What does this fold into?
Amino acid sequence: MTDKSLERAATPEESWSDEGANEDGEWLVEGIVAEEVDLDGTKRYEVQWGGGWSRPDGTNTTWMSSIPGREDLVQTWDRKQKQMRKDLAKVDSAIPLPDTLSVHLWRTELRAHAFDERMSKVPTSPSERSAAGWDEEVELAQQLPLKMENRALRPRSRPYSSPARQSSSHKPRSKDDLAASHHESSSTPCRESSVHSPSNSSSIPAVSPGLTSSPKSRRQVVQEMWNKATEKYRWKKAIEKAPAPVLIVNEIDDEEVPPGSETFEYLENNYCWEPDLDPHMSVDDALFTACDCTICHDPSKCDCQVPSELKDDHGQKISAYSDDGLFLFHVPGGVEVLECNKCCRCEIACSNRVAQKPRDVGIEIFKTLQRGWAARATHDLEVGKVLGIYTGKVIRRGDVASLDANHLDYVFDLDGKEDDDGGDVSVDGRFSVDSYNHGNWTRFINHSCDPNLVVYSVVYDTIPELNVPYLAFAAKDVIPAGTELTIDYLGSSSGDVEKRNMSQVQACLCGSQNCRGWL
Ligand SMILES: C[S@@+](CC[C@H](N)C(=O)[O-])C[C@H]1O[C@@H](n2cnc3c(N)ncnc32)[C@H](O)[C@@H]1O
It folds into this structure.
């Protein structure tokens, strides 16, 4: 594919006679009809020529980065576009954004493909993008002072009721080479340098080493850093594929990247933790219950499902997913989905490996008018589509209280098996995930009282007894590309607010018809 917007059409001066020029031989500009933003942030305007001039094929526009002598046209155009974006941003987050924005999204996709082309790799599908060039480019941009907002609340996972736990039978098995054939990534101790520190390895020179091109914008640098991090989560053998890209878009104001982005450690599909949690988090392979299936169609015959509590009305074990990997929404509160794990023999294509697969949907982190940054997908999503997992730093629940207040908005409790009093989960066994300094795109998912995503607990690279499942996000409805992705921070609990200090409650600006008014 060719990025048409970057082709430079011949101007009338270059290709055509003077017919259509005014008496001074100057060409008349009728106006600007479109704009395009290049990968490095450079704008181009599609200029329509006046004077009745047109090419033989009827076209009469040219892409130009400036219009000498008609800067007024550029200013007026920029002002109107800014206003239009503001108006668009006022649209209720629960309502799909209008077509004008889809055009933008489509162009964003085109730009991503154009980038791939320039890096000499033609992507074969929208979700397959090249890593070429990241290595030279990702050495990071200028370190700017970061202003972190002080917020009070934290999103909580659904407060499930806690069913009686059955004791799991574990069938130790020897290691085989399967682990190596699956994803390279596993959860790791947190990278200390990513905690805000001006002198750490994430400091960003103004110009990328080895490149003579102009300095990169902060947006570009952060985006590249994050996408390079997703590259680590590449599946070998059957699927030579990294997750789809994450892009940063601001159509509202001049904030280039979300606060703290430059020092943020992007973790696409794994947790990190402090060394003191290592004995808890590092699980010996011998403790995994693994299956010998090739493709796991029948959970009742799948050894790794022995500890699973996901059953039908007759007590038969059932799968959380359809054969084509869509979430089926019959996982009751308190039940964790057990996906095939690194010791199972099944293929990567197994229908019981879903939340753990590299994300095949592109994500845009975009600025909203009143709710900070948010997330949306660049493709239409079908019901049950699983988008990814909440990642970040695993901490003991007891340590949440001592976090800085601005972390609390980004703390998700792993409380799926707990009831209001913690149930049969011991105090020492309660954990939370802090995605303030470490995490992935899901930390930008805002709250809606009428959300379009559901959250469920899933286990695959640890064992259920450790109580550190991942929280996975699945589309509750058909979600058109460009629609903000939202969850209900309070799950189904309406009583939860009574336990909260009311001074912590924030006004909800989700704009849905059944908005509770707070979150
Ligand atoms: C996990 S963060 C979501 C990402 C956040 N918007 C950002 O810019 O980083 C949660 C915070 O986002 C804001 N937020 C999310 N949903 C909101 C809503 N419906 N109304 C108002 N603010 C919201 C609140 O400040 C909340 O504490």
Observations:
- The pocket of S-adenosylmethionine is lined by residues 151, 153, 155, 258, 371-374, 409-410, 443-444, 446-448, 506, 508-510, 519 (CB under 6 Å).
- The chain has two domains: 4-89, 178-190+218-504.
